[in-house]
């Protein structure tokens, strides 16, 4: 190190010049190079799979109506089948009362009214004096009960095809036709003009009516709560075919040939 005033060489640790006494400032200690600190690499977050959209409540799980949705759908089908079976049971009984005695004359099912089975009241003229000679009662095609039976079958077919809303409507219409059948039975078959003749509705009639109503309510409840079917996904396009490239050597050979 040299004196800044006189220029004489002095030792590096001297504070004053030995020749002229000029104070000498010590050079600042060279800062040791700080080792380059490598930045701490924060691990990149692992991409998490996107949360799937909440799936609609599955049948038989959850709470409320959805918990019993499958049972409701099955019950609607069973009620509709029972309504159709009830057509083969007695719908109405025709009886005659005189004095304290009552005699059952005929019993009709829904199918009997559809197939136009007849009741010949003229055979009872000698006993009851109420029927005209050679006049038959019954045997007329009944459009009301026939319509109820046909609509019940159509509704069952639509239910099996997983159609919505329409089966429930058909069940309610069938129930109304069954009610109409019972309310106009005597007048439709002309039995109200026969003295001492009474008609009473039987278990098949009430079972058919009740099952049509139950099927309509259950089917409507099922249709309003059943989850929509997922939309079909478009088929994936076929993979693109990459044309094979002929090596240059083979191209040259082909050209030479």
Describe the structure.
This protein is α+β, with helices and mostly antiparallel strands. It has a domain of 153 residues: Butyryl-CoA Dehydrogenase, subunit A, domain 3 (Up-down Bundle). Helices cover 39% and strands 11% of the residues. It is built from 8 helices and 5 strands, in the order αββαβαβαααβαα. The strands form 2 sheets. Strands 2-1-5 form a 3-stranded antiparallel beta sheet. A hairpin with a 2-residue loop joins strand 1 and strand 2. Helix 1 packs antiparallel against helix 7, helix 4 packs antiparallel against helix 5 and helix 5 runs antiparallel to helix 7. The radius of gyration is 50 Å and the shape is elongated.
Label this structure with key terms.
Butyryl-CoA Dehydrogenase, subunit A, domain 3, elongated, 8 helices, two-stranded antiparallel ribbon, alpha+beta, 39% helix, 5 strands, 257 residues
Summarize this structure briefly.
The chain is 39% helix and 11% strand.
CATH class of one domain: Mainly Alpha
Helix- and strand-based class?
Answer: alpha+beta
Write the H/E string, N to C: HEEHEHEHHHEHH
The coarse overall form would be elongated
Spans of at least 5 consecutive residues with low confidence: 57-62, 120-136
- Largest β-sheet summary: 3 strands, antiparallel
Distance between the termini: 86 Å
Q: Average pLDDT value?
A: 75
């Amino acid at each position: 190190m040299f004196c800044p005033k006189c220029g004489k060489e002095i030792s590096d640790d001297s504070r004053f010049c030995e020749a002229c006494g000029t104070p000498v400032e010590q050079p600042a200690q060279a800062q040791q190079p700080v080792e380059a600190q490598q930045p701490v690499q924060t691990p990149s977050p692992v991409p998490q799979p996107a949360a799937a959209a909440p799936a609609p409540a599955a049948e038989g799980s959850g709470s409320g109506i959805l918990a019993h949705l499958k049972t409701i759908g099955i019950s609607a089908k069973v009620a509709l089948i029972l309504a159709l079976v009830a057509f083969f049971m007695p719908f109405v009984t025709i009886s005659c009362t005189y004095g304290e005695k009552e005699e059952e004359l005929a019993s009709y099912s829904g199918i009997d009214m559809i197939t136009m089975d007849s009741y010949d009241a003229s055979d009872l003229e000698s006993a009851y004096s109420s029927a005209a000679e050679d006049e038959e009662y019954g045997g007329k095609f009944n459009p009301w009960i026939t319509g109820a039976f046909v609509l019940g079958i159509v509704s069952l077919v639509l239910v099996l095809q997983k159609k919505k809303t329409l089966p429930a409507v058909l069940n309610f219409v069938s129930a109304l036709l069954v009610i109409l059948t019972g309310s106009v039975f005597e007048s439709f078959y002309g039995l109200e003009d026969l003295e001492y003749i009474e008609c009473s509705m039987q278990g098949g009639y009430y079972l058919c009516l009740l099952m049509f109503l139950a099927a309509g309510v259950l089917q409507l409840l099922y249709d309003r709560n059943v989850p929509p079917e997922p939309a079909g996904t478009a088929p994936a396009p076929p993979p693109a075919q990459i044309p094979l490239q002929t090596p240059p050597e083979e191209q040259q050979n082909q050209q030479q040939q």
